[in-house]
Specification:
Blueprint: H1 2-14, E1 35-36, E2 39-40, E3 45-48, E4 54-59, E5 62-67, E6 76-80, E7 86-88, E8 91-97, E9 103-109, E10 113-115, E11 121-123, E12 125-131, E13 134-142
Antiparallel strand pairs: 1-2, 3-4, 3-13, 4-5, 5-6, 7-8, 8-9, 9-12, 10-11, 12-13
C-alpha cells in the first residue's frame, strides 16, 4: 500500500504538479460504546422506584425485573429477551418481550433523578418501564459493584472504614 502511494506521488511530481501530497489521515479511534450523558450503556445498569417495590437490571446479554414481595404483592423475577438499546438524543429505549410474549419497553432518559428514602440516592437517569398495560417509574444508573441498592462511594475511605467526609453517604 505504501509502495502504491509512493508511486502515485512520483507520477504526480513527474506531471509537473506543484501541489504537495497530503499525508493520509490517521484513522480516528472508534467511538466509545453508547452513552446517555456520562453513563455508559455497555455496563450493568439498575433502575428502581423510590419505594423499592421493583428493581430492573439491564446488562449486556440480560434484562431482569425483580418484583419484591409486600403490600399484598407476591415477589417474582422475570427475564426479558436481551436486546440492544436504540439511543437517540437523551434517551435509550430497549424494546423487547417477556417469556409470555407481552411487549416490554424500557426507556432511560438522561434526566437526573433522586430516589426518596433515608438516605436519598441520586441517580443520573430517569427510568420508565412498560410491560403490557403496566407502567413503572423510577431512577436508574450504573449498577453498584456490591450488587446491593447502594450508591457507589466516590469519597476515599479512612482507616476506620468510614467515608473521609463525615457527611458522605456510605451506602448503608
Amino acid at each position: 500500500m505504501r509502495a502504491l502511494a509512493m508511486a502515485s506521488l512520483m507520477l504526480l511530481s513527474a506531471c509537473g504538479s506543484k501541489e504537495k501530497a497530503k499525508e493520509p489521515a490517521a484513522a480516528s479511534p472508534s467511538p466509545a460504546g453508547p452513552h446517555l450523558g456520562d453513563v455508559s450503556l455497555d455496563q450493568a445498569l439498575r433502575a428502581t422506584d423510590n419505594a423499592l417495590t421493583w428493581s430492573l437490571e439491564v446488562a449486556p446479554g440480560s434484562i431482569t425485573l425483580t418484583r419484591f414481595a409486600g403490600h399484598d404483592a407476591e415477589g417474582s423475577v422475570t427475564q426479558f429477551y436481551p436486546v440492544s438499546p436504540k439511543v437517540d438524543d437523551d434517551k435509550a429505549v430497549w424494546t423487547t418481550k417477556d417469556p409470555l410474549g407481552t411487549p416490554v419497553t424500557i426507556t432511560f432518559t438522561n434526566t437526573h433523578c433522586t430516589e426518596g428514602g433515608d438516605p436519598a440516592i441520586d441517580r443520573p437517569l430517569t427510568a420508565d418501564v412498560r410491560i403490557g398495560d403496566k407502567q413503572f417509574h423510577g431512577c436508574a444508573g450504573a449498577r453498584p459493584a456490591d450488587g446491593l441498592n447502594t450508591q457507589p462511594l466516590t469519597e476515599p475511605m479512612n482507616l476506620a472504614g468510614n467515608a473521609a467526609d463525615d457527611g458522605a453517604v456510605n451506602g448503608h
